[in-house]
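quick one before i forget lol
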Amino acid sequence: MSERVNILVPGDQPAQIQGSHQLERLKPYGDVTVYTDRPASVEEQLRRARAVRVIMNSRGAIKWPAEVLRQCPNLGFITVFGIGTDSIDLKVARELGIDVSNIPGKTAPVVAEHAFGLMLAAAKRVVFQTDELRAGRWGTRIDNVYLTGKTLGVVGVGNIGARMAQLGRALGMRVIAWTFHPSPERAEELGVEFVELDDLLRQSDVISLHLGLTDQSRGIIGQRELGIMKAGALLVNTGRGPLVDEAALVEALESGHLAGAGLDVFTEEPLPADSPILRCKQVVLTPHNADSTPEGIDFLNGGAVDNVIAFLEGKAQNVRN
């Protein structure tokens, strides 16, 4: 491609691609601007983005609703740095001729390992017992959860969910699963039994969520679903915060119906300092960083750059709209 274009990283905070060797690959194609802070207002966001052709939306931290996209007349492409595209109005992007690409599969083992770690930490009461020791209390009686032989329910069996199922089996857990599109072939491939969602909720000792955020999946775990979960069960969510009714989850945890939760994602991010989930003792929380290992970050940076180059060479890939 002979015409050089403006390529924008509009708010790389927390740091994702700033300083990455992957950016060197874009030099033959255009001029890259990386902002290391998030725009403080929509006006500032538009000032940064209005003239650019390509946006690399690191960490999905900046939203691109219809009213913003319509004010970016030169924009032709947005890549996210992961699977989820819920930060972008895909329908309006398609209407405006803006391709939106994601990065499927590259960090699935990294995210699944994080989900597995959250499950173990919640089951072994790691945060609660660490806090007890820091407070000078030894031997506060609370039972840990023994996972071997228990049932793991995996909700969503894409690349991450499939890997989580594999890890659960390696621990000696029985694994059942639910997906929007089950098939005998997929069940055999994964070594799981597909069941109805309500059956999964009732049977599982641990439920791990691995769905993207769509109109179908938003709020899929609400007060009713939490209520029919097995007493003493654990919930793990590394998908998206709005998959779960957070207020109802807090209620289920505080009442003792659920034994704990491991969460990497939240309804509001960054998590507010006064969020009710923070007062729940039996939770393990991480700040939406399940893929934040050096390997995972480089996988995503490389994938985003691959998407940009493919678009600029007229061969757009991983387009979601």
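fyi The mean pLDDT is 96.
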